[in-house]
Structure formats: C-alpha cells, structure tokens
Amino acid sequence: MLAMTITDAAPTSAPATDLVTELRTWLAENWDPELTVAQWWERLGTAGWAAPTLPTNAYGRGLSRSDAVIVQREIAAFGAVGAPAGLGLMLAAPTIATHGTQHQIDTYVRDIVTGQQAWCQLFSEPGAGSDLAGLTARAIKDGDEWIVNGQKVWTSLGQTADMGMLLARTAPDAPKHQGITWFACDMHQPGIELRPLREMTGHAMFNEVFLTDARVGDSAIIGDLNQGWAAANTTLANERASLGAGGGGGGAAMVEPGTIAGKLDRRVGDFVDPNAAAKALARAQKPAEAKKEKKAPSAAALLIGYAQGNGTSTDPTIRQDLVDLHILGELGRMNNERLKSTRAAGGDIPGMANISKLSMSSIMRLQRDLGLRIAGAAGMLHAYTPEQKDALDAAIGNPFLPMITMTALYAQAPPIYGGTDQIQRNIIGERALGLPKEPGNLSTVPFSSLPKNG
User: Fold this and answer.
1) Model confidence over 338-349: pLDDT tens digits?
2) Which fold has domain 299-432?
3) Annotation says 22 is catalytic
C-alpha cells in the first residue's frame, strides 16, 4: 500500500500571539468540566489541539514542535485536561500519519487523539536487544490475515494498551532490514499474554508479551509489506526526540487514555483544579509587567537546595558536580532552542535527537551519583510501597529522599530504552558525521542465513 504524502502539510511556525488568541478563544467556548473525559477529548482531538504537530489530514494543525509546546502550556494554564497521555500520541500517531493511508489515519489516529485507544510498542525482543532488525517474531500469511508468533519484552504500559505497534518478520529469506512489516495489532485478542516485569524501583511499568497465533489483517499493515523498517525508524525518531534532554512539556493534567484505564466515562473536571480557569483569567488580566512565567525547577536546582539544606554544599567535589549538572541541563535547553530556530528557517540539525538522547542519559547518571553522595547513608533507604513511604517519611522527615532514591534506581534505564547509548553513537557517527560503516555484507545476506547475532 502507498503511504500518504504529507509534504503539503509540513510543520509551520504560526505567530505566537495569533495562535494563543485562537486557542484561548476555543478553550473558553469548549471547555466544560461537566463533560466526560471521552467527550472532552473528542472536542480537543477533532479540533487538532491534542496533537497539533500532526498534519491537518491527520487530526493535527501542522504546527512546529515549539508551537505545540505553547499549545500544551496554554491548555495547562487555562486549567483544562490536556491531550491523552501515552505512546499512541507520542509514537503511533506520527508514524501512521507519515506512512499510513487516509483510511488508516481515520481508523487509528482519530481514536488516538480522542483517547479512545491506548497503544504500546511491540518492538524489542529477548534475542534482539540493541539490534532491533534482528527480531524473530514471525507473521505468516493466512488469507487476508497474518498469524503472528513470537515474544516481545520491555513493553511499556502494555497492561493498559488496546493496540500495539508490532514489528514482525514477514520475509525471512530477505535481508534482515528488508523483511520486516509494521502492523497495528489488537491487544485484546486471544493469543496475546502479558506478564509484568517488576523493576528495582518497585514499579512494573514494563511487560513481556507472548504472541501465540495472534492475528493481524492486511488492512493493519502500516506502510508497505516487508518495508516496515522505514516506518520503524519514524517511530524511533519520534521516541528519541521526545526522550531527549532539553525538551519542553506542557504541564497540563495528564490522563491515561484507552478502555482499560477506566477514565473515559469519568467527569473531566475531576482531574483538574476547579479554580484553575478563574486563576488563568486573573493572570491574563494582570498588567504585562506583573506577569512572570513559572518554570519547574531543574534537576540541578533541586539538588542544590538539598545540598544546602544538609550542609553538603560546602564539599568542593559536590559543588563541582552540581555545576556540571547545571551545565548539562543548559546545554540541552540551548540545543533545543537551536533546533527550533533552525527548523523555523527550514533547516535541520542531523543527529540532534540522538545527541539529546545521549545527553539525557548523562544527566540521569550524574543525578544518580550526585544525589546519593548528597544523601549520604540515607540514600540506602527506599520505599517500594505506599505504606513503606509513609513509614519512611515519618521516620526521617526528608521529603527529598524519595526523589533521590527513585532517580538512582531508575537511572539505569534511560541509557537502554529508546535505543542504547551505543546505538545512538553509531547513528551519529554514520549518519551525521559520515563515518564509514563496519565492513561486511551482512546487510545483503538473507536473514534466514545470518549467523546468530549477525
């Protein structure tokens, strides 16, 4: 099937004042806390405000990423519930908008932007970690359907997903990058089993997924048959851009989408401050000189305050690392601004998403090590349940400690998910710097003939 052409709906940068005025007017006319979550998202999504970077034929407004951040912030400032959270909006929607047909966009993307369906990512496999193209999950043709067998792992939020972004091998005798197909997979069907993976943090965000004679139709192929690697790269590019350091968020109330989360029929006003709209109006009526944009404190600022509070800020090595953390955060922010201005001028910075992903990993590792040094012996204490958290808070009276220990335990994940640090360096070297690829002809060898881990 042919992918939709969306060059006529490339992201544009709208004048900020016009954009804000239009959005504020729309919110004033449409926000109603008595609506259900589903009713509110129907309005938000079909008007293009849930995913404004998508093209207009895909329930978006064709806006730039920087203008989309303005939209998110304005929705938050108004006191309304923001767009449906999750991987559907982040990854599936832009991939389908780029590679799908208009019918697929109307089928899948509409349900994403209106929160009707939550999505997960069925990419990684136990035997194909960093080498995603080495996946072995098989899809075999059966009439106008495909029968899928295999195993996936590290599936974020799979337990609440209605649909999955599935990569499966449909041509095992083709070279490994050329025999993969991207499917939209129904997660509710028989033959799909999820098992949660409990992390060292105490949470279970990830899952392993077993597919046993699961079925997907021809109509669920996004892009061309056996050419799913192109669609997968679109998915991964959006993932890295959203995970990288220096990105901005809207801060609006985030609510989980889909049928399993159980939020669609609830009153939307229950998820926001009931006085937020009045506060937003009061802020808008203040003189311009009295308005100050509130920004969330950076990781460096939080740790600086913690170090000052317990006296460790006098340690010269801690002071030096606090400065390093601040510098890394500022570099991420400046790179993000540089990319915005370059794109507004019609250009791009090759490899910036990968650079931002690497930077985020470095920041997380430094936060981990520095936070534990500041916490000292207390850093060995961590609460894994709400009951433990209450007991720990009562015992030590330190509200910062859970943030320190959770960051320390979680810091091992960012250098792995979304493409390992090693993969990011390879991409930067080969695609941005033009360095030669590793020698060999593995890219032309049929997958079925490849040596193990080849």
Assistant:
1) 988 888 788 889
2) Butyryl-CoA Dehydrogenase, subunit A; domain 3 (1.20.140)
3) no
